[in-house]
Design a protein that fits this description.
It is built from no helices and 11 strands. Helices cover 0% and strands 50% of the residues. Strands 2, 4, 5, 6, 9, 10 and 11 form a 7-stranded mixed sheet that branches. A 4-stranded antiparallel sheet has the order 1-3-8-7, with no helix packed on it. The radius of gyration is 14 Å and the shape is globular.
């Protein structure tokens, strides 16, 4: 079983930056497992933020939600670690951010149901 642990959340003023990290432990993720970030604000459904694939050539492909394009970036250092760099944060970014892995496929997806491993989440709060 894969365990995902997020870190890096916190309280920041609007316009500030945070970097979230996600580390996998347990059964090592396949080198071709996709990973993603989702978020859930109070009273709202969990939504896609960013995703990254991994290929045998170590190249990766990424996608971002329209609401965060130009402000967030996703990166992956290896099969077990992914990062979400969040710049120019706005109060609407306040949410619990979850790391997810698609352990059976290296192709990223924006669909929650296609991820089979999840972290416990890390709180991000952006004050006005």
């Amino acid at each position: 079983q894969v365990h995902l642990v997020e870190s890096g959340g916190g309280l920041v003023q609007a316009g500030g930056s945070l970097r979230l990290s996600c580390a996998a432990s347990g059964r090592t993720l396949s080198s071709q497992s996709a990973m993603a970030w989702f978020r859930q604000a109070p009273g709202k459904e969990r939504e896609f933020v960013a995703a990254v694939s991994w290929t045998s050539s170590s190249a990766y492909y990424a996608d971002l939600a329209d609401s965060v394009k130009g402000r967030f970036t996703i990166a992956r250092s290896d099969a077990r670690t992914t990062y979400l760099q969040m710049n120019s944060l706005i109060p609407e970014d306040t949410a619990i951010y979850y790391c997810a892995a698609r352990t059976y496929s290296g192709r990223y997806s924006t669909t929650i149901g296609e991820y089979d491993a999840w972290g416990q989440g890390t709180q991000v709060t952006v004050s006005a």
